[in-house]
Specification:
This protein is mainly alpha-helical and 182 residues long. Helices cover 68% and strands 7% of the residues.
Length: 182
């Protein structure tokens, strides 16, 4: 029997809610809403599975993103500000993250010689090994998950997701313009 709190189950509204929405909305509007429920649920299930998998390697998606960013820099010292911008988080979040990575011996941060207020980060050799192992493990897992989709299907899925994402960005812009007109 499935545990309703499982992090690996699709989360969709109860049938009674779906029925009420179906009565209230047009067929197209209900289909769009149902698609968003599926998209959000899929993202949540994928995020939970990825987080669980990363827990065994680098610890968390944020740690993985940071290590990948430093790995991709190829040894170039990376300003903490670039990490903040890439992760789209506050400086305090990156400070705590970097402290944790430094404590684990995966990253080294030093002050910039030209601007002592600016911190520069690089991977340690241990960090390079950990991120390499995490990439290999997670690439294998993603290939396993996506094995039923052809390259062409993945391309179409990516194109559709980009279109939907761009439309939501536009909806947000339009909403802000409408709010400012009030």
């Amino acid at each position: 029997m499935n545990d309703p709190r499982s992090t690996h189950q699709m989360v969709i509204p109860p049938q009674s809610v779906q029925d009420a929405l179906r009565r209230r909305l047009s067929g197209r509007a209900f289909q769009a809403l149902e698609t968003i429920f599926l998209l959000r649920s899929t993202a949540q299930v994928a995020g939970n599975a990825i987080s669980e998998r990363l827990a065994d390697t680098v610890g968390s998606p944020a740690r993985f993103q940071t290590l990948i960013l430093l790995w991709a820099a190829g040894g170039r010292p990376t300003p903490h500000q670039e990490i903040i911008a890439a992760l789209r988080v506050k400086r305090a979040t990156v400070s705590a993250l970097m402290f944790s990575l430094e404590q684990d011996g995966l990253v080294r941060s030093v002050s910039d010689r030209q601007d002592r207020r600016r911190l520069l980060a690089t991977l340690t050799s241990k960090g390079e090994n950990v991120v390499s192992d995490a990439m290999d493990l997670n690439a294998a897992g993603l290939e396993e998950v996506m094995h039923d989709l052809s390259t062409e299907e993945l391309d179409v899925l990516q194109q559709l997701l980009r279109r939907v994402s761009e439309d939501f960005v536009q909806m947000g812009r339009d909403g802000k313009r409408a709010d400012s007109a009030l």
